[in-house]
Structure formats: C-alpha cells, structure tokens
Specification:
Length: 352
C-alpha cells in the first residue's frame, strides 16, 4: 500500500470491518510531521466526501450492514450519513479558516459553585494556557445552547432522564459549533496541548481528535468522552448527535409499547459507549483526510484504565489528585507517565 500524501484525496469508501478495528499507529507528538510545511487559511471549504445515494445505490445499504457498529437499521444509518455529509452547515466555519483547532478550552458543571477539587483541577487548564479562551458551561448555559442554536434537538434533549445525559450530549455540540478542547472537571493539565492539537494539522479538511484509555480496542468504554478536540464544524460530531437522537427516539418508542429491554443507560445513550460505536462506524465508512477522526494512543490523555484495578491503583499511588498541585507530586507523576499531557482522576460524579 502506498503511503498517504497531503492532497491525496483517494476515497476508500468501505474498508473491511477487520481494518476498522485495527489500533492506530503509535503517536509521538515530539516527532509529528505536518502533512504540508505551510498551511495557509483556506478561503473556501474543501468539498466534503461523498457517499452513494441510499435511494439509488444498494451498495450503500450492504456496506452499512458491514460497518454498522451503532445498531441502527442499515437504511436509517445510510440516510443519516448522507444527510450529515451532504449538509452545508460547515460552510461558514470553513470559509473563515476554521480547519485549525481553535485555542478554546470547554468545561462544564451544573453551576458555578464548584466542589473544591474541581475548582483546583480546572485552574490548571487556565494556568497552563493563559492565552487560550476558557469557556465554562453551566446547565443553564447548556439549555440556552440547545434552545438558541439546536432547536431541532430540543425534543430529544428535554426528554433525557437525567442531567448527566444532557451534559454528555452538549459536549459534542461544543466541538461542532465552536471547536477547541473539551475536558471533564476531574482532569488536570500537566503540559501544553499544542503538540497534540497541532500535530495533526494539515491543509485538508477539518480535524477531530479522540483518545484511547487502553490498548483493548474491543472495550466498549475505550474512547471516553472526557476529553475531545476538534476544529469547528467537523461532520463527525453531527453524526454522533444524530445517532444519539435516533437511538433515544427508538428507545422511547419501544418503552411506549412496554418494552424496556433496550435501555442502554447513560453510557450507551449519550456517553462513551455510543461515542466509540459512532467512531467505529465512521472509521469503517470513511478513509479520507477530509473526514478523518484521529485517535491518540493511551498515555497522552488517558494514562490509566479505570476498569483495570492494577492500573488504577498504580495511577493513584503515583498521581495523587489531592496533592497534584505540589511540584514534587507532579514530577513523580511525570516520571511514572512520561507522555502524560492530561491526568483524569475518574471521580465518576454522575450525580453532579
């Protein structure tokens, strides 16, 4: 296979399912080479990748049966992908040079009255990137975002059973509407993010970056939504939101008939499980620079797997969240996890 080059827009529409499950190559931000030496701000948005018309091309439906990790009917998924890719909602941000990841940090909590540990940890993001814009979103801010900019989503949003479902959903919209970096409140920033967010910058398309928690690519929670980065308007985020909308609408329809067997919980409806399933489907469907979603190896953003007791205990010993403000503790943590940019303490405060 020939290496991919900048400007090489060959579109492999449906690689095999096996290929879609292969782990990404090792990522070394210190040796990252941009795809082109000079990246001028684009005056117009590159044309989006195209997919076959589901009404005219049976190959699309057959391919959805192979690439479908989200569990939607093949015809529904094919129409959804066609709608997302062929929509023009990204045109404005692309025309203004929105293919770079903007220097914006997004964090969210139910109100501005933060618990002491959240207030301490969130300060690390402001201190490490004082020149970046810091945006805090309360539940009221999230409600306003939906009602002002995504009225078509309001019915789904308003019916979600708990605040955590809504908090999960809107973080994808932060990435879609404004781009930047999203981080949970129980995270500490160890070093600047530039090597992570700029390492994938290229002269084609938009960037979206996720991160793996472990090397187990089959683990449902392996791509947490606790940290994400993106240029504004990347179509993947609209795809995630539309999958959530379709999935939850189906659940409500079944519940109205008395069927409660499909209740997937917060992780499967709006959280990390649906994010990973959406990514697996997207990756299987698109192998194209204009639609690519990058995934960082474990150790850069997520340095420990909360599902592995041995790993979690080791992380707690080396990176004590209550003492992380101490320089000695930070050095001890970096010695144990030399590639760490972000620490996640996995407080799992879903009750908020």
């Amino acid at each position: 296979m020939q290496p991919r080059r900048a400007g090489d827009f060959r579109f492999n529409f449906f690689p095999s399912k096996t290929a879609s499950l292969s782990p990404p190559p090792p990522f070394d931000p210190q040796n990252t080479v941009k795809q082109c030496p000079v990246c001028p701000a684009p005056k117009t948005c590159p044309p989006p990748p195209s997919i076959p018309d589901p009404g005219k091309n049976a190959f699309c439906l057959g391919s959805m049966q192979r690439c479908n990790s989200v569990g939607l009917p093949a015809d529904t998924l094919c129409r959804l992908l066609t709608d997302v890719i062929n929509s023009n909602y990204t045109a404005d941000v692309c025309a203004t040079g929105g293919t770079s990841i903007p220097h914006i940090i997004h964090q969210s909590y139910k109100s501005t009255a933060l618990p002491e540990n959240f207030a301490t940890w969130s300060q690390s993001w402001k201190d490490t990137h004082p020149d970046w814009q810091y945006k805090f979103w309360s539940d009221a801010d999230n409600d306003n975002l939906i009602s002002t900019h995504y009225e078509w989503l309001n019915d789904t949003y308003s019916k979600l059973p708990q605040a955590i479902y809504k908090a999960d959903l809107v973080r994808y919209l932060y990435m879609l509407k404004e781009g930047g970096v999203y981080a949970d409140m129980d995270t500490w920033l160890m070093r600047k993010l530039d090597t992570l967010t700029e390492g994938f910058d290229a002269c084609v398309g938009q960037k979206a970056i996720l991160a793996m928690m472990s090397t187990d690519i089959y683990f449902q929670h392996n791509i947490p939504n606790a940290w994400m980065a993106s240029s504004p308007g990347h179509p993947f985020w609209m795809f995630v939101v539309r999958v959530i909308q379709e999935r939850y609408t189906d659940i409500l329809t079944k519940q109205a008939r008395g069927d409660t067997s499909s209740n997937l919980g917060v992780e499967g409806i709006t959280g990390p499980i649906v994010l990973k399933e959406a990514y697996d489907t997207w990756k299987c469907t698109f192998d194209d620079d204009k639609a690519k979603v990058h995934v960082l190896d474990p150790g850069y953003v997520f340095v420990s797997n909360w599902n592995n007791k041995e790993e979690a205990d080791y992380f707690s010993q080396k990176c004590n969240g209550s003492k992380i403000t101490e320089e000695r503790q930070q050095k001890r943590c970096l010695k144990a996890f030399p590639n760490a940019h972000v620490l996640t303490f996995w407080t799992h405060t879903w009750g908020r």
